[in-house]
Design goal:
Length: about 80
């Protein structure tokens, strides 16, 4: 489970409040994860635990996922 020490902090990186920076944030997260999986080659159990955690966070509520923001397109709801 040593592999999770570098994967779990990714879930704690705050999303930017500015919608213009969301694409950059998503690109950083995706490239970090691809680089991590290619370089460190985490074990299957750690990979499954991380992917399960990401899927549970993403589908637990709107706006919680690390891969997309609270806004759809360029129009955000006021309120």
């Amino acid at each position: 489970m040593y592999c999770l020490q570098c994967l779990l902090p990714v879930l704690l990186i705050p999303k930017p409040t500015n919608p213009a920076l969301m694409e950059t944030h998503v690109m950083f997260i995706v490239l970090y994860l691809i680089g991590f999986f290619l370089e460190r080659k985490p074990c299957t159990i750690c990979s499954l635990v991380f992917l399960t955690a990401v899927s549970l966070i993403c589908y637990s509520g709107v706006g919680n996922c690390i891969f997309w923001g609270n806004c759809e397109g360029h129009h955000c709801e006021n309120g």
